[in-house]
Amino acid sequence: VGSVSAVPLSQQVQGTGGSSAVSKCSAAARGYIQDRFLRLLAGRRRRRAPLIHRGYYVRARAVDHCVQDFLLKTQSHRRTQVLSLGAGFDSLYFRLKDMGLLHHTVVYEVDFPNVVCQKATLIKRMDELSALVGDTVGEGLGAITFSGEDYKLLGVDLSELSELGKALEQAGLDNEIPTLFIAEVVLTYMENSRSDALIQWAAERFPRACFLLYEQVHPEDPFGRVMQQHFSQLNSTLRSLAHYPDCEAQQRRFLGRGWTECSVMDMNEFFTCCIPEDEQKRVQALEPFDEYEEWHLKCSHYFVLTASKGMEPSWTPLLPSVTVPHRAGPVGMAGSVPAVVCARLSGIPGLRRYGHRSVLIKPNMILTTGGFGEEDGRHCRLRNFHVLSRHAGCWKAGCVTKKHADKRWGERLYHTVSCLSDSLVLVVGGRTSPSSAGLGMLWLKFPETYNASDPDDIAVELVNLQSAAEPATLRWRHSTTEVTFKGEQYLFVYGGRSALEPVLGDWYFLNARELSDTVIAVEGPVPESRHSHSACSWEGGVLIAGGLGAAEQPLGSVFLLRELEHGFQWQAVETYPPLIPRYSHTAHVHEGKLLLVGGVWFHASSVPGITVIDLMTGLCLDYVINVEHLEWPLMLHNHSSVFLPNEKELLVIGGGGNCFSFGTHLNPEPVSLSLSSILTTH
């Protein structure tokens, strides 16, 4: 993150710049980016999480992509220049010089005086850096802190435009030659009037110019609120967001201030469209990774923008190298569904979790198992089982006592839980860490009778299963669904991922009595491999919807596995309009309608609410969830949901995740969604 802003905030904003340098350095050390200079400039070393590495990789890739495109398009000019605003400890100059790309280009970097002083000292102290710069001249002249033949460091507050103009003139900046301005998470820390003035000043003073902007977007959705809160707590408020909340507003901002061409992409679009497929695969395989939701949400909340004027040929680095649907407009909503907090269930730490499973084990009892969440005031993989029991119309929460427990349970995430009788529940798969092998099967045995008014009084016995069907169970983010074939009950285990395979497309039929793998013929077009999809029992078969596919792209397909006389058949379910691709949602079937709840999609203009698909006609309608009565951001991914058909009510339990470097958000309490209006009018 670059460093600039009003004077009282300069230190906090500079702190974000130091943290960013450490993160970039960690990403380089793991092979995400090739940059041997970061470790020399970052100072301290610290290993970051894979999610952080991916985030800084896509940022570095976007900046390099646009800068190198500028240098390529202007190579016929005798001289060009790059002006990096709020550059902090960035290594761009050294990287470009080392690659031999600065034959006729001078790089100017501007930041607070104390930042450029520290950087100049570092460069002089390290032979590897000073050798690339060569001889220095004219230092100490006004704001010029460091001056090589093709590299200048200037200590100026960017919000003081007259001082900036004077310092640049003194350092030899030429207004008449092609100039690229770079602002990487810099302008957003300035007062909007000052950042707007800077954008306009650049357009007015430089007849042939390009501008590269990278910063945040979408402040008002759940992830955006967590992101804003993080920067506010650092006393580094993101000021641009109120005036320019989306990519279109940023585009209008530049076009209204003297720039004649402007393109913008969020980082999901950039990763998909501008990074070659083999490079995408290389990055996806670098480290064990299982935070897809947070990765895609992070990417939908940052954008890269390029603006230009007077450039021949025109500068358009954000032209996609592959054709994908462009960022679509707003999703048409058919109505809204009210969300309210469940009375009497607030403040129960065990229900704040994600990657867990919740299942109705008796008409008035919900079992929640596994996941990552809050226990004894710390965040960890959870061992505790929780029961919600409804007595006299009210839900009560309790913690289950486990017999023969913890080693067998293994703190699992992304498993499945199937209720096979009033007293028998089967757990299939799941994982501990993404690098470990998947976990096997487990019976949970409940007492036949229980006291609904006292859910803490329930004991469950855990029985480990050494199954012949092990390949079926060593997976996570899969689905396990009850199907019927020739009057016999089977469990259909489908898709998911494993430690070795990032996405699976196979399936198994497990006999519900013996849990043995049974071969049953399946015909028809096989769905593409997927994980984090939804699966529901329907008319003896299974409905599969959405999921994340092999290229880490959300899927919009719906399939029915239908029972035939001699086996099953895959059949595509056409929806009108087409279902917006999504994953990490939950699903339920009610009276011939498939209900999809939440999830993650690439439509940055809104977050998924409830989608209702009429299985007879294929009509597909989206409903927004009205959260005005909630005091906290409702994150509807990695959640679980239970549908209560008599009340036409949906109970959402848990959900959330690690919001990039902004902290972990766990939905603090269960939420009730009343679906009666959309299920009766539909």
UniProtKB/TrEMBL annotation:
UniProt keyword list: Methyltransferase, S-adenosyl-L-methionine, Transferase, tRNA processing
Keyword Methyltransferase: yes
Top-level taxon of the source organism: Eukaryota
UniProt-listed GO biological process terms: tRNA methylation; wybutosine biosynthetic process
Start and end residues of each stretch annotated as Disordered: 1-20
Family annotation (InterPro entries): Gal_Oxase/kelch_b-propeller, Kelch-typ_b-propeller, Ppm1/Ppm2/Tcmp, SAM-dependent_MTases_sf
Functional pathway: tRNA modification; wybutosine-tRNA(Phe) biosynthesis
A Pfam family it matches: LCM
Enzyme class: transferase
Catalytic activity: 7-[(3S)-(3-amino-3-methoxycarbonyl)propyl]wyosine(37) in tRNA(Phe) + S-adenosyl-L-methionine + CO2 = wybutosine(37) in tRNA(Phe) + S-adenosyl-L-homocysteine + 2 H(+); 7-[(3S)-3-amino-3-carboxypropyl]wyosine(37) in tRNA(Phe) + S-adenosyl-L-methionine = 7-[(3S)-(3-amino-3-methoxycarbonyl)propyl]wyosine(37) in tRNA(Phe) + S-adenosyl-L-homocysteine
Biased composition (Polar residues): 8-20
A single MF term (Gene Ontology): tRNA methyltransferase activity
S-adenosyl-L-methionine as UniProt keyword: yes
EC number: 2.1.1.290, 2.3.1.231
Family per similarity comment: Belongs to the methyltransferase superfamily. LCMT family.
Quaternary assembly: Interacts with RNF144B/IBRDC2.
Its biological purpose: Probable S-adenosyl-L-methionine-dependent methyltransferase that acts as a component of the wybutosine biosynthesis pathway. Wybutosine is a hyper modified guanosine with a tricyclic base found at the 3'-position adjacent to the anticodon of eukaryotic phenylalanine tRNA. May methylate the carboxyl group of leucine residues to form alpha-leucine ester residues.
Protein name per its UniProtKB record: tRNA wybutosine-synthesizing protein 4
Protein species of origin: Onychorhynchus coronatus (Royal flycatcher)
Gene label: Lcmt2
